[in-house]
Design a protein that fits this description.
mainly alpha; about 65% helix; globular
């Protein structure tokens, strides 16, 4: 196992349970929109805490987390729920992002809604994939190729951490396809670690 893989596993284990909690809280909110006022409070697993931890709070106007959540709920109930680029464009047309196209933030928010298919895009992941364009559609294409090339690496990492993830999963039995979410988070952490290590 390489040092990069070991670092990726460390990063994964440091955040995996927290990530699952964010996903679980969002899924609960999606099915119970009436809890929105509770969900945006500054507490563990909340939407606001997610925006802070995933470093996107600076991308939207201060004090407008509730409006961002409203826009998100409307979007995930549309036919374009998984279209990150369109969501980023929609947010840019509002006052929420000061006219900026915040594709990274859009991808991270929609990841909460569909962690089975959407892997967040950030500058380090783009660096690993040698991508300059701020487009999720391009990122997704490059990501597909990256996953093909590194499939054995992902499987090795997953096998190594299986005793630990099995324990973590016991607290999240209400989430579907935990194995898929788990693998996607490993992919995400490998991308992040490679970018952070100035991968070329």
């Amino acid at each position: 196992m390489t040092s990069t893989q070991i670092q990726s596993i460390g990063n994964f284990l440091a955040y995996y349970k927290t990530d699952l909690n964010y996903i679980k809280r969002f899924q609960h909110f999606k099915n119970n929109p009436n809890v929105a006022s509770e969900y945006i409070k500054k507490d563990i697993g909340s939407f606001y805490s997610f925006l802070i931890e995933f470093r996107v709070a600076r991308n939207f106007t201060s004090g407008s987390a509730d409006k961002l959540l409203d826009e998100t709920l409307s979007w995930i109930n549309s036919k374009d729920a998984n279209n990150v680029d369109l969501f980023a464009e929609k947010l840019s047309q509002s006052n929420l992002t000061r006219g900026n196209v915040t594709t990274s933030m859009a991808s991270k928010i929609l990841f909460l809604n569909n962690p089975w298919e959407i892997i967040p895009m950030d500058s380090l992941a783009r660096k690993t994939l040698r991508q300059k364009e701020n487009k999720y559609s391009i990122y997704n294409d490059k990501l597909t190729e990256f996953r093909k090339i590194n499939e054995s690496t992902f499987e090795n990492c997953l096998e190594y951490i299986k005793p630990l993830t099995s324990l973590i999963h016991n607290d999240f039995n209400d989430l579907n396809k935990l194995d898929v979410i788990c693998k996607n988070r490993i992919v995400d952490k490998l991308l992040w670690t490679m970018g952070n290590n100035d991968f070329r």
